[in-house]
Specification:
Chloramphenicol Acetyltransferase, 6-stranded mixed β-sheet, 21% strand, alpha+beta, single chain, 13 helices, 2 domains
Amino acid sequence: MSSELLAPLDLAFWHLESPAHPLHLGALAHFGPVPMGGGHDGGHEVPDILDLLARRAAAVPRLRMRVRDVLLPVGGAAWSADPDFDVRDHVHEITLPGADFPAETARLAAELMERPVARGLPPWEMYVLSGAPDGSFAVLVKLHHALADGMRAVAIGAGIFDEIAAGRRLADRRAAGRPRPVPPRSWLPGPGRLLGMARDRLGDLGRAVEVGASVVRASRLDGRPTAALAAESSGTRRIATASLPLERVHRIRRTTGGTANDVLLAVVAGALRRWFDGRGLPLPGADPRALVPVSRRRPGVPAGPGNSLSGYLLDLPVTESDPAARLAAVRGAMDRNKAAGPLRGAGAVALLADQLPPLAHRFGAPFASGAARLLFDLLVTQVPLPRSALSLGGAPLRALFPMAPLARGQSLAVAMSPYGGQVHIGLVADGEAVPDVDALAAALTAELDLLDPPDTP
């Protein structure tokens, strides 16, 4: 793969990170034990999961790329192949005490998520977490946000699974002997392209003004976020997980209308209300605002090299006491967001990043890093997974909990992925600001029960 300039939004993510404030996505995948004689990857022996994971990760071209500065455009950076790439710098195994393996994996995952990925290497890490008495294990994946948004992270990470790896090997065999494609043109622009880029920048200036005005209109100019969800970064993380039956979510959707995501957002709102109450805190004077990311990738179109995100702003109706009314409020607000489109409000931040020159991202990061709290209080995102059953070395994937990065000045991020009949939810919290994130995870199940009592036929 030849050198490729970082897209503007990726460049923004790269410069927004600091040692005390890492900006990577994560996923904690739980697998059942490897069946005897059920190993995949061309053999019948139980595979060495660490070796299998390393070989498959090394076969993903994107995971061999690192970021380096370039001369042009000024302030820019490019992805280029790491000439010294060694997959063992990125893939590790840690054995845990097996008494309470799920709790131990969440604890260790939180510690590992605190650590930024190395910036001089391809910016990703994977850990095999073993030690469960029944032979089950977990895999923690960390990908820098500059490398992937949620959908692209799924596309990259899927290469480790048996089913996708087998399909890739088949495609490689079919492609063998075919004429090699012409390498893509170098990212370094010639004189004619430089003139065209200059004309493009003039057009971008007008779009930037329009998009910037949208961001300002969406900002809370009083600068007062929801206090319980705001915190200067302590550099620590706590992780909690929950799983909700997907059929119950759809049953609520069929009864009330709207989408499954509306139901899940209402569950999050109710869980926050319950969490406030459990802490003995008064309800906030204004409902906390969530950023709900929206992919700008078109369905069926292969993922491009860079992040492609926008987002909706949603006031989570925490101050509403009735669960049905909370759901109705969420559904109405999301309908209005969709009617307006993702190019307004907080989503315009990503679009504004597309209009700014690289030098602005490099020097503007210290000022932009604190802007999130003016727009929203927490991130609530849904990351789609393949619908088919997945496995690693023959070990079935039981659950995959996505983990979103914390915006600076915020203490909670919520990510959700449907898989295997469940919605798996990963909660990432600042360890000092939200030490009781487990209580919030438990509240999610309790709130689903309010909308769909367990004894409902």
